[in-house]
Design goal:
- With about 325 residues, this protein is mainly alpha-helical.
- The chain has a single domain, classed as NCX, central ion-binding region (A middle domain of Talin 1), CATH 1.20.1420.30.
- The protein has 13 helices and no strands.
- It has helices at about 1-35, 35-50, 50-60, 65-90, 95-100, 105-125, 135-160, 175-205, 210-225, 225-235, 240-265, 280-300, 310-330.
- Helix 4 (about 65-90) packs parallel to helix 10 and helix 10 runs antiparallel to helix 11.
- It is globular, with a radius of gyration of 20 Å.
Length: about 325
């Protein structure tokens, strides 16, 4: 156990350092290409930081034959990413996060809610593609994801056409090529370290005798979401709030695509018809938290509760704790 914790902490340190550079070079790329921090976070950051979920999910269905673990892991990561927004709110001191973040993130949240709903319907009323061991939901997830990327890109480009005040370059001495190389090296460090993290987490969780749903939703999701957490906080530290916001929301979109990949990798049967209906709890909580974030972006609360976070962030924490309590409460009683 000591060895597992030591490995976990060392890998976490590698992720922390690499993710800090990832955010830095991502901001440079945004400046050099004219793309917004939101777009960089939604596509580049979110894809890189979600790769551990992809590898862990495929491993769960192909090597471990544990579809419940794969589904719980992805849905748990979505809930945790939304919880991390409350951490961003806590550490972003210039103003309440929901006041400064772009309202354009509501577009991503809308697509995220749609994709979560597709997964929820797939769990509640499993339907297979005729002649194939695939869930019908899988055929819908990928097109919706591509539509989300295209719609967001179109929205961002439309925003750039509006007149804005000229901005002073923050990185005048860093070329786009150097930023690209630095970004690739930092991304490789994040992925390499993050892919080794689930092993230590699963080993510790197995000793507790908990179910795959519980381990996947809370523990494995927490470990594989470490890159999102570190990249997000690093972006906040350098003042790129929209990149931090978009990284978490973009990861949730990409996580739904990972479920589709897991479905293809499982091959034995449609994935969503091979798991317990207990995952609906996490889906509904993820939808609840998505609604809370959307309301916060539209309403833009100015105040902070006791100077810490907004009411929306407190609601996110409450929803996450509710999900954890429901998962623990749903555990089967231990055998005497």
């Amino acid at each position: 156990m000591i060895l597992a914790w030591t490995q976990f902490l060392l890998l976490g340190a590698v992720v922390a350092v690499a993710a800090s550079w990832l955010s830095h070079y991502g901001d440079v790329i945004a400046e050099r290409t004219g793309l917004s921090g939101s777009w960089i976070g939604l596509v580049l950051m979110a894809t890189v930081t979600s790769l551990p979920e992809l590898v862990s999910g495929v491993s769960a269905v192909r090597l471990e034959a544990a579809p419940d673990l794969a589904v719980a892991h992805i849905l748990g990561a979505c809930v945790l990413n939304l919880l991390l927004l409350s951490v961003v709110d806590l550490f972003y001191r210039p103003a309440c996060m929901f006041v400064r973040a772009s309202q354009g993130h509501a577009l991503t949240l809308g697509f995220s809610a749609a994709m979560l709903s597709i997964v929820g319907l797939g769990l509640a009323a499993p339907a297979a593609v005729p002649g194939l061991p695939l869930s019908v939901a899988t055929l819908l997830i990928v097109p919706v994801y591509l539509l989300a990327l295209r719609s967001t890109f179109t929205f961002e480009r439309r925003q750039l056409l509006e007149p804005v005040e000229p901005a002073t370059a923050k990185y005048p001495h860093i070329t786009l090529r150097r930023a690209g190389v630095g970004y690739a090296a930092a991304a490789a460090g994040v992925v390499a370290a993050a892919l080794l993290l689930p092993g230590a987490a699963v080993g510790l969780a197995d000793a507790m005798g908990w179910s795959d749903s519980l381990v996947g939703s809370l523990f494995l999701a927490a470990v594989t979401s470490l890159p999102e957490a570190v990249v997000t906080l690093a972006a906040v530290r350098i003042g790129v709030l929209d990149m931090a916001f978009a990284n978490l929301l973009g990861s949730n979109l990409f996580n739904m695509v990972i479920l589709a990949v897991d479905d293809v990798a499982y091959a034995r049967a449609p994935l969503l018809s091979s798991v317990s209906d207990g995952h609906m709890t996490t889906v509904l909580v993820a939808l609840l938290m998505t609604g809370i974030v959307t309301a916060g972006l539209v309403y833009r609360p100015n105040g902070r509760v006791r100077g810490a976070v907004s009411w929306a962030s407190l609601a996110l924490v409450a929803a996450y704790l509710l999900n954890a309590w429901l998962l623990f409460a749903g555990q089967p009683a231990a055998s005497p």
